[in-house]
Fold:
Amino acid sequence: MTRTPKIVLIGAGSAIFGLNTLATIIRSGRLRGAEIWLVDINAPGLATMTKLAERMNAAWGAQMQIHASTDGRAALPNADFVVVSVQVGPREEVWEKDWRIPLKHGVRQPYAENSGPGAFAHTARNQPLMLAIARDMEELAPHAWYLNFTNPMIRLTWAISRYSKIKVVGLCHQLLWAYAMAMTILADRYGVPIPENFNVHTDAANMPRFMPVALAAHKHLDIKAAGINHFSWVYDIRDRATGEDLYPLLRARWLKHYRKDFEPLTRTLFEIFGMMPTPGDSHVCEYLPWVHDPINKPWEKYDLKLQSWDGNRKRRAERWATAEAIASGARPVDELKNAISEGVVEIIEAITFNDNWYHHQVNVPNHGCIPNLPDDAIVEVPGIVTGIGIRGLNMPPLPAPIAELCRRELAYSSAVIDACYTGDKDAALRVLLLDPMINDIDTARAILNDFLTEFAEYLPQFAR
Structure:
């Protein structure tokens, strides 16, 4: 591809997703003159983000062709890249219900986003829209790359891969959590200050403490990990400058000498399975059968934090205030020049200009990348991005017990996406009974009935 690309951002009216993504694309000198379409059904939000994009475009001399539409089909013809970050339903409201509905029936999930019964509802709401975008791409932009940022990452990316002909990759910044944890243990080697009582919880209030440690770690360390999204495992960790293998030191310090209240579930898994999990306790807990027992209360034992829905609402409001202030000219547009990339611009540049660029974390169909996981499954591995596309790197087999934990989640996820595709209520009940957090048939039936009733307006496939 030698011409400047056409980039479509679906979900661009989100202040959380749109601000960083727009800024990193528009500041790219190599993409100067590209055609950008912003798409969102939220017309006021879309208008704000479009005005913001136009301000960045003018201030930075990017000469982008900026367009906006509430109709994705109007934006898609001949697109080269379609970047998708969408949520069906008010994000915090439906997420909290994903947690509270199972709790009403005695199932206390640790997080309720990517696995567990709440993630069934999360998948069921988003999958029809994600596939509708893929169908439109098949018609209007059949050669474009679908860059997915929407969770549950494994399931939605797999649904697009399974049920469409579109090239798809799932993108996530979760490996930063592994970097932050490793730097916490190794900080004295690099002179990086670690805040008192530091942890890597994912709630919005913790991000100002978390991000400086994670970014410093990425500067000094090189981590190669693989597995499945939010449940990958460190194969190798080295000093980025010298190539020194730091895994033995990390293991000895964390397991023998560091404070035991630092990500205690991750620490325990590291000790038992011999490899360090990457996502931190907030996410790794979603995939485990040992975190919901009401008698032992493992959420207390491991200090597992729920997502802070009120914190997320506050963060969203703050981001909107920032977007509106910059769009109106009340704050300088150059505030966004230091936005942190989540890989979108690098992938677009690498495919457009054949960069042979290494990306540390892509979610792609396995095809042998992890030889002891299913071949068609979506796995998370390092990847190389070139003019011919995105290719995951082949990794050694995971240790058998870790591979089995991943395989179980993948088998469950495969059944979930099929049930959410067909709208078969009997299949939906069967997949909930596969969930390791559910151990009673009547409980599964009650949770499913409540999900189908509460979210009926978002579940057209189950209305048949």
The longest strand covers residues 231-239. DSSP finds 17 helices and eleven strands in the chain.
